[in-house]
Amino acid sequence: MASCTSRNDQGMVQSGEILDSTLFYYNLSKDKSLSLIDRNKTALKSYQKIKKSIKDSLYGQVLYQKNLLHLISKEYDSLLFYNDLLLSNSLNVDKASVLAEQYYLMGYYFAEIEHDYNKAIENYSLSKEYFMRVKDSSLVGENLMNIGIIQKNNNDFFGSKETLTDALIFLKNPEKRANCYNTLATNHRKLLNFSDAIDYYQQAIYTTESKTDKLIYENNLAANYIDNKEFDKAVTLLVDISKDSAISKNPKEYARVLDNLAYAKWLSGASIKSNEFEQLLKIRVQKKDKRGKIASYTHLGEFYSNDNPRIARAYFDSVIQLSKSLKIPRAEKDALKFVMQLSPLNIEIRNRYVFLQDSIYDQELKVKTQFAKYRYDDKLKQESILNLEKENVEHQLEIVKERNQKIISYTGLALILFISAFAAFFSIQRARRLKQENRTAKMEAIYETEAELSRKLHDDFAGKLNHAMVLLQNGSDNTDVLNVVDDLYNQSRDFSRKINDVDTGPKFKEVLFGMLSSYCKNTQLIVTGSADIDWLILSDITKKTLYKVLQELMINMQKHSAASVVSIRFERTKTKLKINYTDNGNGATKSSLNNKNGLWNTEKRILAINGSLTFDSEKGDGFKAQIEIPN
């Protein structure tokens, strides 16, 4: 029995026959070599042994294991019963990880089985909170990813993009990250932003380590080409995928690839026979791929719409019936759109289409509202925790203050005067010292900037100026001399623009984002939180410092980091503007950071306006910087 005990179970075995047998049956229910029926039986025995010991540390884990087996066995009534039982005793469950896993399980149930996306988001959000308590960042990321997928499926493409961007910060597993990139690509595809969709699909293809997933993402990329009417690209890519032996081992995906290939050829105007679609439908019927059947029925309906409307209507009716059984109203609505074209005078079809359109819109609105609510509630909860900590600190300070006042009262008036005089003297000296340090920091930043400008002038202009002088001395052709002078003029203009004062007017945000993008030609730039910043009320000095600091970080990234992803998050409090910079580049040791003049000058700029800059980097582990600027 000891050898069967997992690391999480160590220390649970207490004295007593009941607890020993509970643990025995609990471990037996986790044995995947047993049949599902036997595992359910042992889980029930484990629960019967411990059901009266609610406060036992094993109680929550036994119930979670029982819930998991009910979900796998499709015993949904039992799942809901024991889920309520576990959550009603959640105060006695001493492991946050158990509640985190239970809420995750129920999030999956409501999303995939019940299609109740509001409850799914609710449970995934609660699971995320508990995983944050136990500092399991990967599962925090998975919960965010699942929420982002739900948002995408409910047409909240902008909200999904923001959620998935947050998920990428936590996810380390390449397959999960690839799934995130794939979903982000679909968001852009649905928003008709096909070029960005291509970038994200390619990122998913590059990231995944699974050969099958790689081919699936390539198939999605081909679908993006079809949507953008780039049929030749789609056909070329789908032909290559269909020849790969890995895809032929997966009949469902193989049928999907060939179906897309036939559809792309047909849309391109190539001669296609109906049996190319019908053969794939037979495969999907044989493999019981119901979602795949919807795609086949739809494509066959489109194929026959012009030549044989009666057959087309039959296929679209099959889509409608299958969509109802699978609870996919959006597929039914899409089919009805085609049917209305075939039967434009049928009022019942039009009414059903309008009803579905309204109900889908209501569902999408509920999902958007629900997730916005949980984001807001989560923010309030975090603020509440911080306020509680602040109140505790203030309370402790008040106690210390009262004690000190009693001590001071016994020392006499002379001691109070002495301390007051000393405190005043110290404050004056400290203020002078801080003022001097601030002045020194400003001067050092100025001197470093001047030195940098000097180096730029020497490197960029001296060589070409000397070349022009040699041409003049040797009596070279005027055209050659003018070309060199023209290059000097263009370089001086570009240099002037680079060192020129920052535009802090109404277009500052465009100028800032334009600068950031200019350094990310081959790097993915993810910016969040900028919409929450009121750029017009920021002071000029804050805008200038922010621009210069971020420019230096981007220069450092471009020269040294070799990063493929850069993430910048903006956050504004009452007194400060906070910026979190993260990239997944090479990183650097603390000692090497201290030797980089550009970053040293960046820190001086921040210190000169009483801000702060914190670096967090290790060699090979990316680069992070947290910036705080007073406003």
Q: Could you state the order of secondary-structure elements as H and E?
A: HHHHHHHHHHHHHHHHHHHHHHEHEEHHEE
Count of separate DSSP helical elements: 25
**Poorly predicted runs of 5 or more residues:** 1-16
Strand order of the largest sheet: 1-2-3-5-4
Q: Roughly what fraction of the amino acids lie in strands?
A: 5-15%
- The helix fraction, in percent, is over 70%
For the sheet with most strands, the description reads: 5 strands, mixed
Rg on CA atoms, Å: 33 Å
Number of strands: 5
Instruction: Note the gap between the termini.
Output: 62 Å
Which structural class is indicated by helix and strand composition? mainly alpha
Give the rounded overall mean pLDDT: 81
Shape: flat
Give a short synopsis of this structure.
With 631 residues, this protein is mainly alpha-helical. The protein has helices at 17-29, 36-50, 59-72, 76-88, 96-113, 117-133, 137-153, 157-170, 174-190, 194-207, 211-227, 231-242, 245-248, 251-267, 274-286, 290-304, 309-326, 329-342, 347-411, 413-473, 478-499, 508-518, 540-561, 590-594, 597-608; strands spanning 524-528, 565-572, 576-583, 612-617, 623-630. The chain has a five-stranded mixed beta sheet with strand order 1-2-3-5-4, covered by helices on one side.
